[in-house]
UniProtKB/TrEMBL annotation, chains A, B:
It comes from Streptantibioticus ferralitis. Pfam families: MarR_2. This is MarR family transcriptional regulator. It comes from the Bacteria. SUPFAM superfamilies: Winged helix' DNA-binding domain (SSF46785). Residues 14-149 form the HTH marR-type domain.
Length: 158, 158
DNA sequence: CGCCATTTATTCAAAATTCAACTTAATTGG
DNA sequence: CCAATTAAGTTGAATTTTGAATAAATGGCG
């Protein structure tokens, strides 16, 4: 089955899988977002807390954090400003490179992370992980890892 | 492995799969968005064109379209206004329910759809479908369908 | 050394999204 | 039949995101 300019359409099976993937992506995002609302965090907030929590000294350069969370520098800059206002992080100068800044987790940010993480993990289980069989989990990883690799490589160029 | 309040952490394997899924979701969205840029369409625009194209008479009630594309009514309303300004769709009154409106694909919208779809499908192949084996495809569908079902059911309450 | 391209990060304005309030029409329950 | 409730959709203001422009510091390299 070909389109006029030579592209192959998706088979029914392919289309079904594609749409399922898309639907899961979106609904899952919304659901996790909702599960964080009681803690006054967006998913974005949470993701930054995770990254900083896992980082050495609970701090990361803005650029690295932007890369890690797949956001533009501009967006991250605004995001950190908001989180700074909320008391979750603070900015700190980098001595070795005076252009640079660190985003640093505050005590309150760290406390928040410890308090919220268990609930978030429970939500990830409830809405995703625990719905997969052991085989399903492995199959998913094996199917998606090459896609991730491709996208990582493609990212930034055309 | 348990958190203090009884939630089970993710195993390494679970965590890896979860993060891979998340990464693929996001990078894929960005990539497809980029592939649509040359046609002056956002992914949102495209999705609406798809829905209307597949609908009877190339038209859909606003509510149904909002549901189908997983957006709020407000967001859809703004979105359709923009697309109306771009000449892709028009609004039309519904006679049987005078509160209601149809979003209708214009000729230009339909032409646009026919022109763009092959490129989009090619992108979906390049960045997703063609990176999966036949087994991978099936495994993905089987793993994700229950998740989709759960999230659909959970949506709106929960 | 001195110049220029690059890297880091912010800022401003424009576009998109959300959120709550509102309008109008249809339904429902006495 | 009417009042109250629900449903469809829009609106406008506030928030968030994007994208281009800017500023400051670094790194090469001739």
């Amino acid at each position: 089955m070909e389109t006029e300019n030579g592209a192959r359409w998706l088979s029914d099976e392919e289309q079904r899988t594609w749409r399922t993937h898309l639907e899961v992506s979106r609904l899952l995002t919304y659901q996790l977002e909702r599960d964080l609302q009681p803690f006054d965090l967006t998913y974005n907030d949470y993701e930054i807390l995770v990254n900083l929590s896992e980082a050495e000294d609970h701090q990361m350069r803005m650029s690295d954090l932007a890369r890690a969370t797949l956001q533009s520098k501009s967006r991250l800059s605004h995001q950190i400003t908001r989180m700074e206002n909320a008391g979750l992080v603070r900015r700190e100068n980098c001595e070795s490179d005076r252009r640079g800044l660190f985003a640093v987790l505050t005590d309150f940010g760290w406390e928040t992370m410890k308090r919220v993480a268990p609930h978030h993990v429970a939500a990830v289980r409830e809405h995703f992980i625990d719905l997969l069989s052991a085989d399903g989990l492995m199959a998913l990883q094996e199917a998606l890892e090459p896609v991730a690799k491709h996208l990582r490589a493609t990212r930034g160029r055309g």
